[in-house]
Design goal:
A two-stranded antiparallel ribbon has the order 1-2. The protein is mostly helical. It has seven helices and two strands, in the order H-H-H-H-H-H-E-E-H.
């Protein structure tokens, strides 16, 4: 899994094994061994890789939910929480991980934004309020 993620991130960033090895101060052969699964990065290399690619170490080593794997390794602060279904009463249950990350609980208010081409977005009230405050202060 780590090797596959390194390949994915290296290619997503348009890097060769040589370029990656230079950026994180290891040999190209070391990168090749990681990618083939013959060895795994040590802790300091994981830190350098996660910093370079702007991903969490958990995501880099593959400690992600099964349905997150369909989108590859997400940058830090970006999440794919899985799929939700509209119930018979038109309610939607948000995944627990999403509630935890955004500190949401029963009674939390969410703004619902929509773009006909891109879909829906749910944004916690505090973040929307903060955004509008910034816009108001810029005037």
């Amino acid at each position: 899994m780590v090797g596959e993620n390194i390949i994915f991130l290296r290619k997503r960033n348009g890097m060769t094994q040589e370029a990656l090895s230079e950026r994180i101060n290891v040999s190209r052969q070391t990168v090749a061994k990681w990618e083939r699964g013959e060895s795994e990065p040590d802790c300091s290399s994981l830190v350098r890789l996660s910093t370079l690619f702007d991903v969490t170490i958990d995501a880099l080593v593959g400690n992600v939910e099964e349905d997150q794997k369909i989108i590859g390794v997400a940058p830090k602060g970006k999440y794919f929480f899985g799929m939700a279904k509209i119930n018979d009463d038109y309610t939607v249950k948000l995944p627990q991980k999403a509630l935890d990350v955004f500190s949401l609980s029963v009674g939390s208010e969410l703004a619902i934004l929509c773009d006909e081409d891109r879909g829906f977005a749910l944004i916690p009230k505090k973040q929307i309020t903060d955004m509008f405050s910034l816009v108001e202060n810029d005037k």
